[in-house]
Design a protein that fits this description.
Layout (H helix, E strand, L loop, with lengths): L1 H16 L2 H8 L3 H7 L5 H16 L6 H7 L5 H77 L8 H32 L6 E4 L2 H17 L3 E5 L6 E4 H17 L6 E8 L3 E8 L32 H12 L5 E5 L3 E9 L3
Parallel strand pairs: 2-4
Antiparallel strand pairs: 1-3, 4-5, 5-7, 6-7
Helix pairs in contact: 1-2, 2-6, 6-7, 7-10, 8-9, 9-10
Length: about 350
């Protein structure tokens, strides 16, 4: 590439100067030294020519040193052309060698980068396997713990004082939160280690929405949050019913979690051209603008509830994004601090 550019510049310079020597000499500023190296002139001859060139320049007549040497008869035009041509060939060879070395360096660095990426992928897989193994080991004792807590709350293991009953409620809530985190870790490591497999089928979105709402309604009632549904008659969608149900439930749970008592959570489905939009809105605390770009990153803490407590490891939204993207869609969010948030995605409609 550099050689081609050089040739074009030489050609353009030659045409503008009216002779090949004039154009070439523009690109070869040390023409005098080259002529000395070829024993075509002496150092004294060059010094004389440079003095003449300086005087002419002072009088307003500029001339290239090579042209001046030809004019003074110190060197023939043929010799000047030969020296310049040889030097251009040397420049081209140097450029080609430099280009070759650059390509080799780029290839070497590319190989090193690929190796680093492979090592990083291996390390990432090792970390995910570790998380999966630990989460799996935690799941069984957590289930036992939740089971016994339920038995104690129902007083099947004996009577309880009011203080003990209140403590058990708190313990059960904390245990359920830990159980949810464990399940999220297992799901995320499973999805991250392999492609998400979808069981695509046609169905109406009312089913997943109603199922998700029935699971999440008690939380809304416990926080005195108004729950609204807007489910107009819609065409069927093509998606994984179970996974979409989970996505809707996660978005609703997230909305309730960050909405204060007396607020409102709304889910609606909206027909679009060839798609159906699923939208979950709330009147909660909102999300700062600087946190929006990393909201769906794994292990991102989504924020604090009204009580100021962190709400988990933040894998729920990361899993939501993976499932939605596996359906060929994207999860979008709009939010303002103090005014609530809107999460939405689309699914392809049937027909």
């Amino acid at each position: 590439m550099a050689a081609i550019v050089t040739e074009k510049l030489i050609s353009q310079a030659a045409q503008s100067a009216g002779s090949p020597v004039s154009g070439l000499e523009v690109l070869i500023p040390r023409i005098g030294e080259l002529l000395i190296q070829q024993n075509l002139i002496s150092s004294a001859t060059l010094d004389t020519a440079l003095e003449i060139q300086t005087r002419r320049a002072q009088s307003g007549s500029n001339i290239l040193i090579g042209e001046l040497l030809v004019e003074l008869g110190y060197v023939s035009r043929q010799d000047l052309n030969q020296v310049i041509t040889e030097h251009v060939f040397q420049l081209q060879s140097a450029l080609a060698l430099s280009h070759q070395r650059l390509e080799e360096q780029v290839a070497q660095q590319t190989r090193e980068l690929q190796n680093a990426l492979m090592q990083l992928a291996g390390l990432n897989k090792l970390q995910l396997n570790f998380v999966a193994n630990v989460s799996h080991e935690l799941r069984m004792p957590m289930q036992f713990l939740l089971g016994y807590l339920e038995l104690m709350e129902n007083r099947l293991l004996g009577p309880l004082t009011d203080e003990q009953a209140h403590t058990l409620v708190s313990m059960r809530g904390a245990s359920q939160q830990l159980h949810q985190i464990t399940e999220e870790l297992l799901q995320f490591s499973s999805f991250a280690n392999s492609q998400i497999l979808l069981d695509l089928e046609p169905f109406k979105l009312e089913g997943p929405v109603i199922t998700a709402v029935s699971h999440i309604q008690p939380k809304a009632q416990a926080k005195n949050i108004r729950f609204k549904r807007q489910l107009p008659f819609l065409p069927k969608v093509i998606a994984d019913n179970e996974k979409i149900t989970w996505v809707v439930e996660q978005l609703l749970d997230n909305a309730i979690k960050f909405t204060p008592s007396g607020g409102e959570v709304k889910i609606e489905t909206i027909p679009l051209r060839g798609d159906v939009l699923v939208k979950v809105s709330d009147t909660g605390i909102g999300i700062p603008r600087h946190k929006l770009p990393t909201l769906f990153d794994p292990a991102n803490l989504t924020g604090k509830t009204q009580s100021g407590h962190q709400t988990g490891v933040g894998l729920g939204l990361a899993l939501v994004q993976k499932i939605v993207e596996a359906h060929g869609s994207t999860i979008e969010v709009e939010s303002q601090v103090g005014q609530g948030s809107h999460f939405y995605f689309t699914l392809p409609a049937l027909g």
